Amino acid sequence: MARKELQEKQQAAVAEMQAGFADCKARFPDGSKQYIAKQQCDSAAAQSIRPYLTYPDLFDREQAERAVIAERLQAGKVTLAEANQHAAAVHSQIAEDEQRRNLAARSVGAQESAAAAAWRASAPVSCTRTGNTVNCF
């Protein structure tokens, strides 16, 4: 029951985020030069999914990077194309970091399983039966 409830909450959070993004797009249509306000709006909309993320620190890092990109874009320090390229690079780096963490967690789990199997194999079990009683060592 808890898993289904969590899934429903996650789906509601995703729907809330998508509705927020749609609202931001309506308030700041393509071509709008209000890059900081648009980024703040999108970031606020995305916050609804943060509690359900495996690595919320990566989410926070991406949002912070996007805020910096929006500030530089609005200040005229970069072009829209450069800002988009930087945002894509940041997103790729975040995805790579997430994948690295997931692989490391799997590797640790595999090492623990291998160590447990090796320990079990190194200590053979011997059982003796005395009447109706079985003792294993």
Describe this structure in words.
The protein is mainly alpha-helical. It contains four helices and two strands; from the N terminus they run ααααββ. It has helices at 2-27, 35-46, 56-74, 80-122, and strands at residues 127-130, 133-136. The protein has a two-stranded antiparallel sheet with strand order 1-2. α2 runs antiparallel to α3. The protein is elongated, with a radius of gyration of 25 Å.
Topology:
Blueprint: H1 2-27, H2 35-46, H3 56-74, H4 80-122, E1 127-130, E2 133-136
Antiparallel strand pairs: 1-2
Radius of gyration from the alpha-carbon trace, in angstroms: 25 Å
User: What is the rounded distance between the termini?
Assistant: 40 Å
> What is the number of beta strands?
2
Q: What ranges have pLDDT less than 50 throughout 5 or more consecutive residues?
A: none
Q: Could you tell me the mean pLDDT?
A: 87
- How many DSSP H or I helices? 4
SSE class: mainly alpha
Instruction: Spell out the helices and strands N to C.
Output: HHHHEE
Q: Overall 3D geometry?
A: elongated
Q: How much of the residues is beta strand, in percent?
A: 5-15%
Helix percent reads: over 70%
Strand order of the largest sheet: 1-2
Largest sheet: 2 strands, antiparallel
